[in-house]
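Researcher: Here's my situation. A collaborator sent me these components and asked whether they could plausibly form a single complex. I don't have experimental data yet, so a predicted model of the whole assembly would be a useful starting point for our discussion.
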Amino acid sequence: MGIELITLLLFGSMLLLLLTGFPISYGLGAVAMVFSLWLWGPESLFMGYLAAVGTVNYTVLVCIPMFVFMGMMLYYSGIADDLYDTFQNWLAPVPGGLASATVGVCTMIAALVSSEAAGTLTMGRIALPLMRKRGYQKEIATGCIQAGAALGFLVPPSCIAILYAVIAKESIGRLFLGGAIPGLMLASMYIIYITVRCYLQPHIAPPVPKEERASWDKKIKSLRHLIMPCAIIFSVIGTIMLGLTTPVESAAIGVLGGLIAVGIKGRLNLALINNALMDSAKLTSIMMWIFMGAMTFGQIYDALGAKEIIHTVTTALPLGPWGVLIMIQCTFFILGMFMDDTAILFITMPIYIPIIDELGFNPTWFGVLYIINMQMAYMTPPFGYCLMLIKGVVPPDISMADIYRSVVPFVIIQGVALALIMLFPELVLWLPRVMLGGG
Amino acid sequence: MDKLRKAVWFMDSLGMGAAKCVKWLILIFVFITLFDVGLRYFFQAPTLWARELVALLFGPMWMLTGAYLLITDEQVRMDLVFHRFSARKKAIFDLITFTLFFFYFGAIVFYSWQDWWICLINNEHTRSVWRPVLWPFKLAIPVGITLLLIAGIAKYIRDLYVAITGRDWNGN
């Protein structure tokens, strides 16, 4: 049997098995092992164990549970409530101010908490009722929350950026810095869209009545809520950017900051730490087991030479570098309908990164493109993790159809941002080069 | 049946217990790292062992949480159709596909114990300045996968019961 056919069979049977609802982590490894047994006999099963050892050796990833735990501490400290208070005091006079405040707070949360769920859950709880009370339409009110929360992928510290950096053998700091400007750019684009739309159509977001706006005194005072988050953002991301600490050390400092934040609020107790630790351990473990499965799978297609085949086929296509890049992104989009971001990353990147290198594209830039692609996949059906998440927190009068409609303008904005970043790679590459030097 | 339930409960509690212990490692990582950073910045005297110890303990943390994820069914599935199935149909599907789970982990659990044993009798050390003994850390792989297999057997028994009787595991 030709290698081409075996490659096809390998990927086909993997997809088929996963479609039956078999957990992705076990499925990747199991399919690989079956093929290995079939092609090379029982001795080759040792490869599966080597993949396990290989995964254990990715020790830099130890920063993931720490970043997740830090985020949870900050989440429980109620930092988001305070931030929203500040933002809405200041933005109330602007058209669509409450929605813009939501995006603003989400961006800050994204810089503190490395999971997109935090933004959705807190904003769904705090901002949504307030916006509805002020007569904001459903679409704008739920849409801005999801768009803002999805920024968690892009704004550092982001788990997916860490994983990409490790697979692409890039520095984590570089990926963090690369995501910073696109993240801020997207946030600004959302806010501009909200402001312009609400200015033109005041009925979708009625302005807050003058007498109910916060006084200057109150506005100034509310600025104190920014101190703690800014201090933590600086001590975590700032130190990585300046090259003072490794990501692992920054994460540890962040945990300390998170513990202090919860302590100040008087909410620190054993049950809370217990739950947060368990959740962080679980989240990390889920990623690592998928990684292990994907490593096993990767070793088999390496041994098969399938990598070379995919490589030759893609580079031989009469598409040119940009055509290949767009085709790769289409595969992200399609896979994004079935799989979660980590699985896609672990399966496709070992194949794609050499291709990207050969085509002369920058891997940091490619990583950011991938992350924006995942952001879009999370906001569009059918997998649409953000959509399902927000359905769980909205009041029953907002239907799934409302939610689908609400993300449309924001997904379009993401598409525009993606195009901009493809056309102007400097948006990603400038900051890492200035801060860390090199290409 | 009650005896079987008790046995399954015991098998599950092994995996659950392991995860509940190793989650504390995250706090230990934080404290060791902070200690090291503190020594480096304030006393210009970083430790030789902190970074390596944290790195060596990371594997055990996620390896030993694996069984927990299986028991609580939190491993990510490609959820296009699966969530719409009835509990019985889910159990039947899992009974078929989990044979592959046993094949995969059954194969590597064997190699992992073998490799650990070699590491133990050769008294291997890591290649670093600190040079700690390797076998206690390496033990995490065989133990983690063994716990996962035990949890898998418990799950298989539960699924068999659900598939055959159509009732849930508690008999309702």
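Model: Some features of this prediction you could bring to your collaborator: Chain A touches chain B through 59 residues (CB under 8 Å). Residues 270-304 of chain A form the longest helix (35 residues).
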